[in-house]
Amino acid sequence: MTLLRPVRFSDVPTIIAIENSCFESPWEPDIFETLAGWDGEVKLADSGIAFMRVADEEDDVVGYIIWMVHLDKSRGHIANIAVTEEHRGRGIGTSMLKHAFDNLRTREIPRCSLEVRESNHAARRFYEKAGMTPSGRVRDYYSNEDAITYSIDL
Ligand SMILES: CC(C)(COP(=O)(O)OP(=O)(O)OC[C@H]1O[C@@H](n2cnc3c(N)ncnc32)[C@H](O)[C@@H]1OP(=O)(O)O)[C@@H](O)C(=O)NCCC(=O)NCCS
Question: Does residue 125 sit within a domain?
Answer without folding.
Answer: no
